[in-house]
Target: Thioredoxin domain-containing protein
Amino acid sequence: MALKACFQVSTIASSAAATTGTWALPAHRPFFIRDKFHLPAATGHRKSVSSPPSTSTGDDGRRSRVTCRAKKTVDEVLVVVDANWENLVAASDKPVLVEFWAPWCGPCRMIAPVIKELARDYAGKIVCCQVNTDDCPGIASRFGIRSIPTVLVFKYGEKKESVIGAVPKSTLVGVVDKYLESS
Model:
């Protein structure tokens, strides 16, 4: 019921406010834009909606209505360069999925969204990284990368498996699951 009233207020009021500066609702007194809206809550009590509910402030200083309970979990693909290879890949206590790619490579651009999905799906269980072979040829030559995209799986800093080419998500999921089960 509150949602229905909210939609009524927003559709009627938006057209009236644009022309007159006041909002008029049927069977209600006109009120100004700065007035508070009082919509019926689910329990029958009146609830003010002029200000958002109390929220927590995130790390970036902006307010957030959703509280993340796993703030330290990485759910994005990290960019690896020579300087941070040891910290992100070699010293990780979780399995690490490393994609070797280049910006000019079409198949690399096809597999990038799949790697991002894996990072979200397995957040907190694995670490997903990307190495641009144009920027970091030393890392690519160290692991014998001759074609891209190539995905390597590392566990405790040791190379365990490689997948060459733009493969479907199911192939990468199978590889990741194999190393998660043996943890």
